[in-house]
Design brief:
The chain has about 525 residues and is an alpha/beta fold. About 30% of the residues lie in helices and about 20% in strands. It has two domains: about 240 residues, DD-peptidase/beta-lactamase superfamily (Beta-lactamase, 3-Layer(aba) Sandwich), CATH 3.40.710.10; about 220 residues, D-tyrosyl-trna(Tyr) Deacylase, Chain: A (3-Layer(bba) Sandwich). Strands 2-1-22-21-20 form a five-stranded antiparallel sheet, with helices on both faces. It has a five-stranded mixed sheet with strand order 18-8-6-3-19, with helices on one face. α3 runs parallel beside α9 and α6 packs parallel to α10. The two termini are about 30 Å apart.
Amino acid sequence: MLTFCCPSLRRPVAALVFFAACLPLSAAGQAPYSESAAAEELTETISQTLDTEPFEGAYWGVHIVNLRSGTVLYSKNAQSNFVPASNVKLLTTAAALDQLTADYRFRTRVYADGPIEDGTLKGNLIVRGSGDPTIGGYEQRDDPTRVFRQWADSLKALGITHISGNIIGDDNRMDDTPLGHGWSWSDISYAYAAEIGGLVFNENTVDLHVLGQEVGQPAKITWEPFDTDYVNVVNRSRTIPWRTEDDEKYQRIMGTNTIHVRTKVHPNREETESITITNPTLYFVHVLREVLLREGISVGGTPADLDETATTVQYDSDLVRPVASYTSKPLRQIVRTLNHESQNLYAEQILRTLAVEVPPQTTEDLKPGSSALGVKSVRKTLAAARVDTSRIQLVDGSGLSRQNLVRPQSIVRLLQYMWTHPAPAASSAFYDSLPKGGQEGTLEYRFQGNAPAHANVRAKTGTLSNTSSLSGYVTSERGTPLAFSIFCNHHLAEGNQVRSAQDVLVNALARLPL
């Protein structure tokens, strides 16, 4: 537990946690506190928590609303703009459920553009991307090539044992810009900054395993899927004695699929890391070709991006016919993974899907299937939630960019809108997508034990350096639903100190006798 002290208040944060847990409760049988009394208690708790020395110079924004009455219980800097980090995912998922519906599914189709004669497909195999982020993704990570093997089974059922042409990926459903606007170049090696595109496999990463050997020797490095030669791994790792500190270092050289591993690892100790690739479309069809070969289907041609070939595909032509497909789970399950795990790639793919499926009317010259056009669709849902969209700035769907600016009040208005959304399926899917305090996802290790908000709060975290956010729902002691948004920007405190302060506030809400 944290024990830093504030010279002015002379109250350690540990005492603040106790203070929040011991807010006065009305006696059994008495009427609940009035909203004004609750607001007074909150004001005291919040000032005692935030006005402490570790947060000197930090900028806090807090907005709390009673969802039953609509009353604002507390507001601090709630109409100022903050960098929201992953709280942007609340906006993306709300817009997707609002406009695409909770039952929306991605459908990826595989086509043949030639006849099948004597077991040979005399032509190309073409995968038409849907932007589905789930193929080989989070729920398939134990077997990322499963869908590809199923496609191989479909081809063999049609009698295909050889493909004379190429394995071609069509990613034209979405804009080709691979990264979000304003993303940092130093992030591009890591899975949270994976490239975006019309075709996605294994979350556009390879999964490295670095196993320590004898001291002084390089570690043994393997990767999934099956040590694919799509990447080139340069092993500069070292096995170090147990008494020395280990260190993980990975770098994918920008614009290439060359990965340098400089990890220091102890003997027989394994470190794992997912490292991004570049050109997701080529990666997709490259691994698909490898799987087909492993499944006994020979391929005469090479993997290729449709844009890099002279091939023109007319999908409604009699010469082009579907031979396999994959349909994703419904959107309600995808956004649950997205928000529980704070999955950036899922958010970016959904943002661009909005641009494709529900393109907004605009006079701006924006690319079809682009993030910028997807942001316009998000703004449509925000406007329906009575958010002043002229006062926010959105540039991506995940919150990885520091150029996003959102108000705490705007987040809470969106939470209110989704709480009473006219489509119950959208409302429940949005609520269920948020991890439960002390039990799930990014909140698994917060609000644990006897914390008042344990298994009660449902909220989305957000973290960048010097930035932390937490927004969602919590129920008061007497069952009143509350919506809250807590932002902290420009802090120099340790991340766990900021999170502890946020938790104090949410636990105080859960103890309110409303």
